[in-house]
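Try it yourself: sequence plus zinc ion, in.
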Amino acid sequence: MIKFIFALILLFIPLLASAQTFEKTVLIAPPKENESRYFYVPFDVPAGAKSISINYEYDRANGANVLDLGVFDSHFAKDKSDMSGFRGWSGGRRNSIFISENEATNGYIAGKLPSGQWRVILGLYKVAPEGASVMIKVKINEVEAAARQQLTEEKAKVFDFPKRRRIAPPTANSYTWFRGDLHTHTFHSDGNWTIKGILDYAQANDLDFVGITEHNTFSHHTEIDSLAVNYKNLLVLRGEEVTTYGGHFNVWGLPKNELIDFRITPKDVSRLRVAVDRVHQLGLMASINHPTALCGGCDWSYGDWSVMDSVEIWNGAWDFQDEAALKLWDALLQRGNRITAIGSSDTHSPPLAENKNGLAIGIPTNHVGMKQLAQNDLLAAIKNGRVWISANPTDYSLEFSAFNGSRINIGDLAANLNNKIRFDCQAKNFPVGATVSLISNNQVLLKEKIERAEYVFAKELSGEKDSYFRLEVRSETGAMLAFTNPIYIQIKK
Ligand SMILES: [Zn+2]
Ligand SMILES: [Zn+2]
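Structure, out:
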């Protein structure tokens, strides 16, 4: 009997592991221009801990203070130069998070809780001139009911999108033009989609690929991997929106649980290059997001776009910020740079009646010319510029190519030309009254109104200098309906 009681006590020790609380208030001064924007607060985790809850509070000072939250475990690299020990990031979305062996708040990584010194990482998005006083509370072996409830509610969200008959991607000029959105957010960062909601919506709306690009975390990878196998026509990319306080960039197709370091100080070009080099080492691409967005730290502060592989010229519904990005891109093309333009929705919420900020996936849509739908083919085609972009997945059809003895596609470079070249365009289903423009070297070479559902032109030009040729289709009011990446022509010297 005594033995039995002893065994019972042993059995209950882990379950009764005592709760411990760590509380600390730190005063954060506004960072100087070149200073790190990350502040680490260490705390100790004892052996055998079952859960860690973190709560932080500070005076928002009417928006003058905005501090982001993340966590590193005891495998944190002391020189802060790699992502060892990374356990998640929630930006400014949440005040309370938890991590346990089997589950964690969205954005955080569940799993073993190694003992030793962990760190809260605070991201200093905005700090008032007088500084910010931050109270951090860490609880070991006690999860706040509200944090657990939030996770349960997010997991239980169901979005029921109507299924439609699928329209297969069209084939033209030796490629199938697969359609996709490369920039979306779920509960794993600051979005209000579930991953299943994104996949259901993309599949029901004729998209062939979708990138789920959470801000500064990989907590969505496991769920993507377990769900994506159920969507046979959809290529799903594990993405990260590498979110710095001086601009954002997307990376698609990351290996499982791989994170690109986001701790780059605005304007620190050399540090940016280290991150981009890492992306290239992985065989992936780095793509600037919304370079001219006016949301405080969203615009690109790292100068020259040409160190990057592509740039999101069209973000969500077309507006003046996209117009500004288009101008900058065209200026780069005029200087001989051949960075690919892409577009994506950057949707954070489903397009539901009760949600004013909801945005459909595929607004706008990338049409990427590939032989087959596979991650490597997709990245290679984007890098090559074999992309045109339209306001939505299936309303419009646009074919643009050149002919000089052989067919030259969007993104291709036709070298050593010494004679005339013909440009062919076929545009279908655009609204009557829309305008097609052929643009080269800051000049509009042709501008025509569309007068019927099917519009065609063939224009012969003789090149005098190296040039790019791209198409835009705009509505009567000037809103962008579609545009292509250029065809590049090099003249024989
Ligand atoms: Zn962004
Ligand atoms: Zn985004």
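One thing you can check immediately is this: Residues 320-334 form the longest helix (15 residues).
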